[in-house]
Amino acid sequence: MKIDQTVAAIVTGGASGLGRASAEALAAAGARVAIFDVNEAGGQAVAAAIGGLFCKVDITSEDSVVAGFDAARAANGQERILVHCAQISKGGKTVSFNKETGGFKRLSSEDYAFSAQGILIASYRLASIAALGMAGADPLNEDGERGTILLTASAAAQDAQIGQVAYGSLKAGVNGLVLPMARDLMDLGIRVNSIMPGIFATPPMLMAKERAPAIFEGLSKSVPFPKRLGHPEEFASLVLEMVRNSYINGQNFRLDGAIRMPPK
Questions:
Q1: What are the boundaries of the signal sequence (predicted)?
Q2: Residues 43, 27, 126, CA angle at the centre, nearest 5°?
């Protein structure tokens, strides 16, 4: 797919981190970009900087997401690119010792369901709504391509650590969406892929660097090569390639400096 001023894109989580870098890269390539985020101040600032549109969207709410798509399409036209980076989740071990009671407790079904809403269900929600709009659009090229959907999974989808039972299993579920959805949409010319980032220098990690520099340094050294955290711009670079290369479809792409996470 050619990225230029005729193409509209939506990026969730675009107020910071991987989403922000993706929004900036797509805008620099010429796309008309709409940012979905709950961080109104941050999202407005990024949108203003790239000449884009900000829509305050809660990815766990169907109504909020639909309203965001409606606003983005009214301003920019039908999106041909969806990059979904936003997520909400809770951590915790399946069963752990409770110091307050002197017994054991489990990660509640409610907390697991909260993470499912913020990771897996939100991913399906954003992807399916985008696909529904793309399906009625004219083809963009001789291949009959109408759009591309890029979901964000995680290296934890394959080697989640202790305390990541919800996060890891649900990110694995995001990967599991990709191939059947790509097959569902193949006759419509809509591609579906995911990226599994490793440890990236996003705002939470940079805050951790300030609070616990030794731990941050240890994480950096744990990456085989290069021995550092990933730059959000490197994630965005892969986003651009996966959008442009129409032969990438149904893939879960790991971007992690060859790291394999230990149990803890």
A1: none
A2: 60
Residue 124 is a catalytic residue: no
Name the E strands within 38-164: 53-56, 79-84, 95-98, 103-106, 147-152
The model's pLDDT over 91-120, given as tens digits with 9 standing for 90+, comes to: 999 999 999 899 999 999 999 999 999 999
The count of structural domains within the chain is: 1
**Residues facing residue 37 across a β-bridge:** 56
The answer to whether the beta carbons of residues 93 and 86 sit under 8 Å apart is no
Amino acid at 160: A
At CB < 8 A and 24+ separation, what contacts does 38-47 make? 39/15, 42/15, 42/16, 43/14, 43/15, 45/15, 46/14, 46/15, 46/16, 46/20, 47/14
Percent of the chain clearing pLDDT 70 (strictly above): 100
Nearest-5° angle of CA 234, CA 168, CA 101? 130
Amino acid, res. 182:
A
Query: Is the C-alpha dihedral spanning 205, 209, 213, 218 positive or negative?
Result: positive
- Domain range for residue 65? 8-201+231-255
> What global pTM score does this model have?
0.95
C-alpha to C-alpha distance for 11 and 104, rounded to whole angstroms:
41
| CATH number of the domain within which 172 lies | 3.40.50.720
